[in-house]
Specification:
about 25% strand, seven-stranded mixed beta sheet, about 180 residues, globular, 5 helices, about 30% helix, alpha/beta, three-stranded mixed beta sheet
């Protein structure tokens, strides 16, 4: 399958589940995320505010904030770029460009402090390859982090079980996940 074909296929799989079923799976995945060593031990974590068809990590975000960790969320600022902002509570959110809730907190650019990243995606494979939605925001962002800091934080792909495949199409600029967490 090509990348566009796989995106279309995964969208069709998602439509086979009710919102309640996706939320129930999200709760189990969130519990696993909170138990994950790289999440537990990190002091600074980049997460994402989920779209309705993505694994909801809202309970993870809230738990991390209550533990006193620095939680960052991305904000899309152009057709090619996202920046990071600190997140403290739901009052820090506004609806962004793609209907995604985005942070309004303090701008964050100390990339060296980021220890762990929770990464959404359309599909992942056994080797840690990730297929995003096709805009390239995360790949460009990771390339920028790597150029500035000389390394990437620990990357955890977050997905429903039906989003994980034996192998998916990928390009050399795609950044591999250190771990893909599903149920």
């Amino acid at each position: 399958m090509t990348k566009p074909e796989l995106r279309k296929y995964v969208r069709s799989l998602k439509k086979g589940y009710t919102q309640e079923q996706l939320m129930a799976m999200s709760e189990d995945i969130s519990a696993s995320l909170l138990a994950e060593q790289h999440v537990r031990e990190a002091n600074c974590i980049l997460a994402y505010f989920p779209l309705p068809d993505e694994v909801s990590v809202i309970t993870v975000i809230e738990a991390l904030v209550s533990q006193g960790k620095t939680v960052l969320l991305p904000e899309v600022v152009s057709d090619t770029e996202m920046v990071l902002r600190e997140y403290h509570s739901r009052s820090d959110l506004k609806e962004g460009v793609f209907g995604i809730m985005e942070p309004t907190g303090k701008l964050f650019d100390d990339y060296n402090r980021i220890e762990t990243v929770l990464v959404p995606g359309m599909a992942f494979d056994e080797k840690g390859n990730r297929l995003g939605r096709g805009k390239g925001y995360y790949d460009r962002f990771f390339a920028d982090v790597e150029a500035r800091v000389g390394r990437l934080p620990y990357l955890i792909g977050v997905a429903f079980p039906f989003q994980k495949f034996g192998e998916i199409p990928h390009s050399e600029h795609d950044k591999m996940m250190d771990k893909v967490l599903t149920l």
